[in-house]
Amino acid sequence: MTKNRELKIGCCAPIDRYGEVAAAGFAHIELPGSALARLSREELMQWERTVKDGPIPCRGLNSSIPQEVKICGPMFSEEAACQYARLLCARAAQLGALNIGIGSPMSRTLPRGFSVETAWQQTEQFLRIFCAEALPYGIQVLWEQVNTEETNFGTDSLASLPHVEKLVREGLSNFGLIADFYHMARMGEDAAVALQVAPYVKHMHIAGVHNGRGHVTAEDEAQMKPMFRACAAGAQQSISLEASHGSIGGEGAAARALLLRWLGEGESA
Fold it and tell me: Rounded CA gap, 264 and 269, in Å?
């Protein structure tokens, strides 16, 4: 599969670990969006110099929405969403980012009794606003399912799918999904689910379940490799390791090698 050979493997990390990410052989870094939005002008210029003078690009942003900016819920505000989207998209473009991931569980957790239907209406509008701000920069806005240990909304890939399809039908050309295999595995989802969402997947994330969200290891293979293979056979061209602990040059490099092995097995199958 020619497309598989083009898959670029990167790593989510803060800017001060840029050198480690590059030295470990990753194709790109994925930077924290909420931290990017808080920077002073001088700090933003430092981030920009680090990326532009370095050997690998910034592919996109994770951890994009701060808790005070609500994706949905009783404190949702279109004005606040628009202001934040305008700021973040402009800064993402300065770094050359191609994707902005919308996961951010604390920005979408609902109080007891809040209407799920209303929450989805608000989320759809939030995503429309972000897509409109991102489009002039050629940036994709990607919705991410998150597991129930972190939030109580948008936790099921198949329940999210009708809303994704609705936005695509509306013509949001820069909208899609992140397939996060850690969250999918925590929810008991499998390759059959991955195949259903795969047409909308534009980028992927992965972390280990067996080591408490460290870098993915062979222990995760039985659960994650089929989902990875289901999505990596599609048109998307990138995945980022998104571990919460573990060394980039040690466990991270080993995880990269593992993904390359899975990829090679898919090509030879």
Answer: 9
Question: What single letter denotes the amino acid at residue 237?
Answer: Q
Map the chain to HEC letters.
CHHHHCCEEEEECCHHHHHHHHHCCCCCEEEEHHHHHHCCHHHHHHHHHHHHHCCCCEEEEECCCCCCCCCCCCCCCHHHHHHHHHHHHHHHHHCCCCEEEECCHHHCCCCCCCCHHHHHHHHHHHHHHHHHHHHHHCCEEEEECCCCCCCCCCCCHHHHHHHHHHHHHCCCCCEEEEEEHHHHHHCCCCHHHHHHHHHHEEEEEECCCCCCCCCCCHHHHHHHHHHHHHHHCCCCCEEEECCCCCCHHHHHHHHHHHHHHHHHHHHHC
Model pTM greater than 0.90? yes
The predicted-structure confidence for 80-139, as pLDDT tens digits, reads as follows 999 999 999 999 999 999 999 999 999 999 999 999 999 999 999 999 999 999 999 999
Listed residue (76, 75, 176, 67) closest to 126, CA to CA: 76
Instruction: Give CA separation, 148 vs 34, 46, 105, 195, 201, in Å.
Output: 22, 37, 9, 21, 21
Rounded CA gap, 142 and 139, in Å?
A: 10
Question: How many angstroms separate the Cα of 251 from the Cα of each of 9, 55, 63, 122, 257?
Answer: 14, 21, 22, 39, 10
